[in-house]
Q: What sequence folds into this?
C-alpha cells in the first residue's frame, strides 16, 4: 500500500512514473509472487509500465549469508540494513536507472528535505513515529538523498490507507509484514536448515561460572532473550562465549550499560563528526531515543548515554538524532 500510494501521488504531480519490483527468494513475505502480482495490477490500474528484476543471488549473498555469518559470530544482526544499503538502494536502483529513472520513489516512512543553511539534503523522522523507518535508513549513502523521494513520510499509516482506499487502490487493506521477510521459523532453526548443520549443544552458566543446564546451540539465542532458555528461573541471556560454547545467563539488570562503541559510522545528514556532540541515540528499531554524547575515537565513535540503556547488542546499529533529524549511525561493536 505504501509504494502503491507513492506511485499514485507522484503521478498526480505529472511525473513520468514506472513501477519496478524485485524478486528475492521463494517464500519471501514481501517479495513473493503474490506481491509481484499485486504490484503489476496496481501499475495496470495507474496506467504506468511495470518492470521486474530478479535479485535473488544478490539478496542471498548480502542479506541471508550476512545474517547467518553474524549470528554464528555471536552477534545480533540487522539484515534490513544491508537489504536497504545494497539491494534496494543498490542493485534495484541501478536497474531502475538503466530503465531510465532519474529518481527513486519509495514507500518508506521517513522524510527527506533540503537544508538551505547546510546546503545539503537531510534525513528526518516521519510524522508517524510508530512506522518510523529512518533508523534503518541512517546507514544509506548521503549522496543518495538527492535522488530519493519519500512522499508518505508526512502521513500516518491510517492516512495512507484511507487515501489508498479513496483513490481505489486494491491493496489499501493489505496486511503488513512486521518480521524479517525470509524468516518463517526461529532464527536458529532457519540457520540450521539453510546451512544443513545442527548447532552444537553446550553449557548454560551464570556470570560466576556456575553450571545451570544445557543449551541447544548458541545460534538459538540472542542477548536479552528471556523465553526459550529452558531454565525454570526467569533468567535473561547476558552473553555468549563462542570459544567455550557457553550460554551466559543472569538477571535483567545485568544488561544495562552506559557506554559502547560503534564502528563504520555513516553520516547521512552531516559531513562528519568532528567533536563531541549531544544527541539522542536509538539502539534498536522502534526503541525510545535516549540522550547521549558521541565523540570520534579513531575510526570508531564512542557513545556515552546519560541514562543506562538495556541490551545494547553487537551487530545492531545505533542511529543518532538531533531533534527530528537523523544525522547518521554505525554498527555497535
A:
Amino acid at each position: 500500500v505504501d509504494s502503491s500510494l507513492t506511485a499514485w501521488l507522484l503521478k498526480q504531480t505529472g511525473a513520468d512514473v514506472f513501477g519496478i519490483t524485485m524478486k528475492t527468494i521463494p517464500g519471501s513475505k514481501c517479495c513473493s509472487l503474490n506481491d509481484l502480482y499485486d504490484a503489476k495490477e496496481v501499475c495496470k490500474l495507474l496506467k504506468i509500465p511495470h518492470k521486474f528484476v530478479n535479485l535473488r543471488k544478490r539478496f542471498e549473498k548480502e542479506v541471508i549469508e550476512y545474517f547467518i555469518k553474524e549470528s554464528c559470530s555471536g552477534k545480533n544482526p540487522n539484515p534490513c540494513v544491508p537489504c536497504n544499503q545494497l539491494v534496494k538502494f543498490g542493485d534495484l536502483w541501478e536497474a531502475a536507472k538503466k530503465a531510465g529513472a532519474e529518481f527513486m520513489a519509495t514507500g518508506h516512512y521517513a522524510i527527506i528535505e533540503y537544508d538551505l543553511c547546510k546546503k545539503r539534503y537531510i534525513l528526518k523522522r516521519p510524522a508517524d513515529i510508530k512506522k518510523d523507518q529512518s533508523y534503518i535508513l541512517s546507514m544509506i549513502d548521503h549522496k543518495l538523498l538527492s535522488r530519493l523521494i519519500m512522499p508518505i513520510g508526512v502521513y500516518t499509516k491510517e492516512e495512507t490507507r484511507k487515501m489508498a482506499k479513496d483513490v481505489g487502490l486494491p491493496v489499501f487493506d493489505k496486511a503488513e509484514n512486521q518480521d524479517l521477510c525470509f524468516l518463517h521459523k526461529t532464527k536458529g532453526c532457519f540457520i540450521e536448515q539453510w546451512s544443513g548443520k545442527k548447532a552444537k549443544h553446550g553449557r548454560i552458566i551464570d556470570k560466576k561460572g556456575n553450571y545451570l543446564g544445557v543449551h541447544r546451540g548458541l545460534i538459538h539465542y540472542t542477548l536479552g532473550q528471556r523465553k526459550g532458555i529452558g531454565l525454570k528461573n526467569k533468567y535473561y541471556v547476558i552473553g555468549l562465549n563462542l570459544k567455550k560454547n557457553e550460554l551466559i545467563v543472569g538477571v535483567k539488570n545485568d544488561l544495562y550499560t552506559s557506554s559502547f562503541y560503534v564502528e563504520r559510522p555513516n553520516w547521512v545528514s552531516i559531513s562528519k563528526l568532528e567533536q563531541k556532540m549531544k544527541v539522542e541515540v536509538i539502539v534498536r528499531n522502534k526503541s525510545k531515543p535516549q540522550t547521549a554524547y558521541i565523540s570520534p575515537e579513531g575510526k570508531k565513535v564512542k557513545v556515552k548515554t546519560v541514562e543506562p540503556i538495556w541490551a545494547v547488542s553487537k551487530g545492531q546499529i545505533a542511529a543518532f538524532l538531533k531533534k527530528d533529524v537523523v544525522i547518521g549511525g554505525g554498527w555497535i561493536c
Observations:
- The chain is about 25% helix and 30% strand.
- The chain has a mean pLDDT of 94.
